[in-house]
Amino acid sequence: MLASATTVSADTMTMGLPVPALRAARVARGQEAFPLRVLWTRSGNLSTGLRLFGESFAPIVVFSGKGMPIQTRTALEKRATVWQAPADSLSPEWALQMLAQHHGVRKVVLEGGGTLLRLFLASRCVDELCLTWCPRVFGGSTGITLTGLPGDFLPSSVQARLLRMEQTGLECFTRWGLKYQRIFSGKR
Ligand SMILES: NC(=O)c1ccc[n+]([C@@H]2O[C@H](COP(=O)([O-])OP(=O)(O)OC[C@H]3O[C@@H](n4cnc5c(N)ncnc54)[C@H](OP(=O)(O)O)[C@@H]3O)[C@@H](O)[C@H]2O)c1
Questions:
Q1: Does residue 184 carry a pLDDT above 70?
Q2: Among 41, 89, 154, 187, which is most buried by a count of CB atoms within 10 Å?
Q3: What is the pLDDT of residue 185?
Q4: pTM for the model
Q5: What CATH number is attached to the domain comprising 159?
Q6: How far is Cα 31 from Cα 70, in angstroms, rounded to an integer?
Q7: pLDDT of residue 30
Q8: Closest Cα to atom 10 of ligand 1
Q9: Which domain holds residue 48?
C-alpha cells in the first residue's frame, strides 16, 4: 500500500489490513499477512511521531524528494527503509521500479489522495481505479477532487471502462480499467 505523508497524517492511518479474511487470503497466496507500507513525501517533512511508526506489523518504506533534512532521514532510518530521489523530481516511475527491484513488489494499492493520484495518472502508472460513490453533495472551491485541488487538466485525458459495480447499503463501489492515449512519437 502506498500513501502520502499528507494522507497518513490527516487520517492517522497505520496502513494495516484490519479484515482477517483479507490477511488470510494473502497468506494463502504465499504473501506476508500485511502488505509493505510505503510512504511518499516530496519535501521529506515526515515525522516519526506519526501513528504508523508505532506499529511494527509490516515494514515501512519511505520515498522522498532530494530535500529531506539529514536529521529526519537519520530518525526515519531507525524505523524504515528510506529512498531519496536521485534527480530533482520524485517520480512514480522511479519509485515503482525501486519497489519492484528492491522489495519484490508486483502490485501497488495507491491510497490517494488526489494530488498523488494525479501525479501517478500523469505518469500513466495507474491500471485500475476503485471509486466509491457516497450519497453526499457538497460544494466549495477548495474541495479536493479525484485529481487534487481544481487546477490544470491532465496532460491527456484517461479513458475508463467499468469493470465491476456493487451496491452495499447506501454506497456504490465501482472498479474501472484505465486506458491511456498513445503519445505521438513524431514518426508516421
Ligand atoms: N476519500 C478517500 O478515499 C481518500 C483517500 C486518500 C486521501 N484522502 C484525503 O485526501 C486528502 C489529502 O489529499 P491531497 O491531494 O491534499 O494530498 P495527497 O495526494 O494525499 O498527497 C500529496 C503528496 O504528494 C507529494 N507531492 C506534491 N506534489 C508533488 C510533486 N510534484 N512530485 C512529487 N510529489 C509531490 C506531497 O509531498 P509533501 O509531503 O512534500 O507535501 C504529498 O505528500 C486528505 O484530507 C485525506 O484525508 C481521501
A1: no
A2: 41
A3: 57
A4: 0.94
A5: 3.40.430.10
A6: 34
A7: 95
A8: 113
A9: 2-180
